[in-house]
Amino acid sequence: MLIFTKLLLAHLIGDFLVQPKRWIVHKEANKVRSKYLYIHVLLHFVLTMMLLWDLKYWKLVLIIAVSHFIIDLAKLYTTPLFRLRSIPFFIDQVLHLAVLYAVAYYGNLVGHTIALFEKLDWPLVTAIVFVTFPAAIIMGKLLEAMGEKIELDHKSLPNAGKYIGIIERLFVLMFIILGRWEAIGLLIGAKSVFRFNDLKESNNRKLTEYILIGTLMSFGLAIVTGIIYRG
C-alpha cells in the first residue's frame, strides 16, 4: 500500500502541481514533436525515483515512465475526436492509475484485486449508487406532472438541478453514516440561501412549491437510504 501511495503522490505532483499550462498547450499543438512531452515524462521518472528512494525499483519506474509517455501521446492525438475534452482527460487518468496499481502489486496482482473486492462494503456501494442517478430518475418521474405546470422565465445550465440533487444526496448520506445529523440542517440552510434570490426574483408560487417539494423529496430519499444502511 505504501508503494502505491508513493507512486500516486508522484503522479499527482508530476501531472498537476509542477506541469505549467504552457507545457500542456505546447504538447497539444506539437504532439510528439513537443519537447515538453519528454520533459514531462522525465520529470515523472525523477519524482517517482525520489519518492521511492530505492534504486532497485528503477525498472518498475521505467515501465511507469514509458507507459506514461504512450498514454499521454495517445491522448494528444485522440482528444480532437471527442466533443468534451474532459472525456479523454479522465480516460487518461484512469489508465495512469491502472498502470500504477499494476506496478505496485505486480507480485500478487490478481490476489490483491480479489481481496480488494471482497473487502468492499457492498451495502454502502449500493446506497451510494442509489442516491445518484436512480434517485434522480425516480424523482423526475414523481415530479413530472408538477414540472409541466411550471413556466420558467430564466435559463439555467443543462441538467444542473439533477447534478445538484445528486451531490446533495451524497452529502446527506455521508453525514448520516458519520452520525452528523446537524450537518444536514446546515446543508438545507445553505441551499435555501442560494435559492432565495432566484425565488424572490421569479415571484412564482408554483416554482417555489415545486423546488420545496423536490428538495424535501431529495433529502428524504437520502435520509431513508442512510437509515436503511445503518440499520
Automatic annotation (TrEMBL):
Segments traversing the membrane: 36-53, 60-78, 98-117, 124-143, 163-189, 210-229
Question: Keywords, A to Z?
Answer: Membrane, Transmembrane, Transmembrane helix
Question: Does the entry feature the keyword Membrane, yes or no?
Answer: yes
Q: What is this protein called?
A: DUF3307 domain-containing protein
InterPro entries recorded for this chain? Answer: Phage_phiKZ_Orf197
So which domain of life are we looking at?
Bacteria
Question: Per the UniProt entry, what species is this protein from, by scientific name?
Answer: Pricia antarctica
One Pfam family from the record: DUF3307
The answer on whether this UniProt entry bears the keyword Methyltransferase reads no
